[in-house]
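Note to self: the last two entries modelled the partners one at a time, which told us nothing about the interface. This time every component goes in together.
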Amino acid sequence: MGKLVALTGNYAVAYAAKYARVDVIAAYPITPQTSIVEKLAELIESGELDAIMIRVESEHSALAATFGAAIAGARAFTATSSQGLLYMHEFVHWTSRARIPAVMAIVTRALAPPWNIWPDHSDFMDQRDAGWIMGFAMDNQEVFDLTLQAFKISEDPRVYLPVMIGLEGFILGHTTMPVELPEQEVVDQWLGPRKQEYVIDGKEPLALGNLAWPEDTEEMFMEIQKAMDNAKKVIKEVDEEYGKLFGRKYGGLIQCINCEDAKYFAVSMGAWSGDLIEAVNKLREEGYPIGVIRIRFCRPFPYEDIWEKVKNSKGVIVFDRSISFGAWGPLFTDLVTGLYHYTNNLPIMSNVVAGIGGVNITYNDFAKLLTSFIETIEKGDKPPVFTWYHKR
Amino acid sequence: MTASSPQSPKPRPPLPYNMREVVLPGDAACPGCPIPMAWKVLSAVFGEKMILVIPACCSSVVVGAYPGNSLKASVVHVAFASAAAVASGIAEALRKRGITDVQVIAWAGDGGTADIGMASLSGAAERNHDIIYIMYDNEAYMNTGIQRSSSTPYGAWTTTTPIIGKTEHKKDVAKIMIAHGVPYVATASVAYPHDLYAKLQRAKKIRGFKFIHIHAPCPVGWRFDPKYTVRIGKLAVETGLWILYEYYDGKIHLSGPSRPYIDPKKRKPIVEYLKLQGRFKKITEDKIKEIEKYVEQHWEWIKRHM
Amino acid sequence: MMYEIIFYGRGGQGGVTAANILVFAALKQGLHGQGFPFFGAERRGAPVLAFARISDKPILRHGMFYETDILLVLDRKLIDIGVTKRVKVRDNGVIVINAPHDYKLDLEKLSLEGKARIYQVDAKKIALEHNLIVAGWPVVNTSMLGAFSKATGIISIDNITSAIKEYFSGKIGEINAKAAYQAYNELNLLMEV
Amino acid sequence: MVKEVQIVKTGIKIPLAKPKVGVAGKTGFWRITKPIVNYDKCVKCFLCEIYCPVNVIRVEPDQGPVIDYDYCKGCGVCVDVCPTGALELIQEE
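The predicted structure of the combined assembly is written out below.
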């Protein structure tokens, strides 16, 4: 049995990296990620974690150094937020296209200007095209579990892709919650030594990244798409095995709450899913047949699993905490496209973008939005396809 | 320990033969390119056991297209500004894994070092990672077609200084590295392979961050006949314009080939160097005076730190 | 009508310049044109491609192609080493080779879809006669445009020469235009296949 | 006690290249001038071999420089650094 402690989301990330026995950490401080780097430095300097920290001079160099360590055979880890993630974006692509396992935590925060340190998903969702597997936690226990699982998923030979784990700044990052820490030996047994397709350490002369002709290049990238597909299976296997070993199973790519007999579904990702679940519990008591589908991984996008839940539903409302200006929320965009695989008369679907720039969306807001969504459909009308819900 | 100049045919001891196996013929370098010349010297010191971390620069193309690589050594291509950062990551991973038989070398051009890579260079130097950072300096962005870099010399034509020529003096990166207090800094030239060889041997034995600035005349970029790459490299030293030295133990040690030229009277006139290069074809008298002034100031600085 | 044209030359022979001049010439003839280099690193002396399209309607296509109506070979050695095999010449295609008068063509070294008219012109000799040499390389690109005009009839020699004079101002334009005109006259049908 | 990193190859297509002679083809085709040796002048000082940017000159101790013309790019550096004029650049054909 594990040890129950109380940790902030950031510390949960740091401990997950410790349990994964990371070898090299290269990171640059940025609010709200800083306490991850501080805790890791403390763990290292106190001798609790046998790792090397490279205190780089920028986020671009943070992921560059992490990439360097990873290709040279180290289990490498880094973490960043907001502007830092955008600054290292060049290496977000570089790492995935080199097919090198690595793990990065993103303590999500709004993008500037104006300066804003509060949570939304804009920084994280801006990385969706880059070939990283992307998971997002709802609470600090899951932050720990997901960060640990990220190493297992990333180093699976069927995947060999870096993994990015999101947690909202402040409402998870700086919020203390109970977290059960596992036995190190059980983790070692389960995770095992790092695995990768190749290593650059001088044993054999290898060159990574030489210019390639168009056809070779495209074939390499098609492999990434295949790996993303494999990842769907791997993520479920890891979730199963993790459940058996550590007692917490989340359901793989998505988690469903109150879905059994639901006619309506609310889809969301991240910490505010908790507030959404509380709202749905209340509405359930009032007789509304609604369930919550919480997306744990938005890459690879779990449309098959969501279809299984919503195929007979009367209405699906998708909450996005980021927006692609000039279009819609990214989760909505990906879900509609995904469901179109199965049918061209989709259930009534509605996209609500909210909570941008850290605006706090409460369970009351969710209850109000869900009630009007359901009642509009029950009356035979059609709710708006897109709403940017802003309270003030 | 001076390299023999063309006049006296006293044969120098050849560099060890294993410089034959690593730099493979038929690479994509232009005829007369200084890059593989320098790689041969690196191979004489490290053989296959080196990991070249190469940002965007001519070398990225010279090594050829997948699935082939023109070096029988390890290469990691990286984003333009990140050579020092990636090299740091590799070096620390190898240290953690207890691997000590391979040399991590950041191999970057002047643009990738003096401009876009300056922040990561400074960071890696300040953290004193155990790597050799080599800046091969062909004095402009050659891979993208000869645009001006901060390392382009004063007065030189480039495609982005097409009429007036560069209006600033060359950014002296070696001096900046000395200011970082790293254990070893040296300047070298492809025209003096024995000197470069000796500096690499010394750098190899020093733990911590080593920086070597290699002068690398580029036929296409400097507009000269490819057969003159070495001649022009030598003229740069013989005119006093390029000073070969090492910095360790807190002071500058002038290298053999440059020692005679501490005396201005021994230096060949700057024009000898300029006239072979098309990039200086339109240079004016007053600009040559400005270059001569720069050379004098540079020597004064060197003397003060010897 | 749409013609796709490939200039197969060696780095430094001016294949790209020729493709661009061809666009100028096409405009003079009231046609639409497109000219572009091989997208990649070129090296002086190494095999390199340049491309052109000419049409009576605005050209909507983009990008490189390896099947062509007209193949202009700026150096016969490219045929000898076999790289020209990579370009397939469509039925009723035209090939012009810069080669000496007594050049023996090995048809195996070409990739012909069907019938083809193959011409020879000694553009190198013409260049040397006009002292058209740059960095040790005889300038053959403008002569090949003259030969192209005669071999295909798509663009008149007058439009070719005036495009050359527009592209190169002054004396250089004059000499290159003369070379093109001479190639136009000295073109020789090597064989019909 | 986590063991060394394991290399588990799956054969997926990734941007990894291996050493190869002639990545740019037979670069000998590029040249229009080429160096030739008159062996009687050669003092075996190895400068041509040391400087050759294409690494195709091998100085045989008893004979002198042997050049692999499949790849020699004809740049002429060897000719320029030779202290005794044992190498000469000639126009090709």
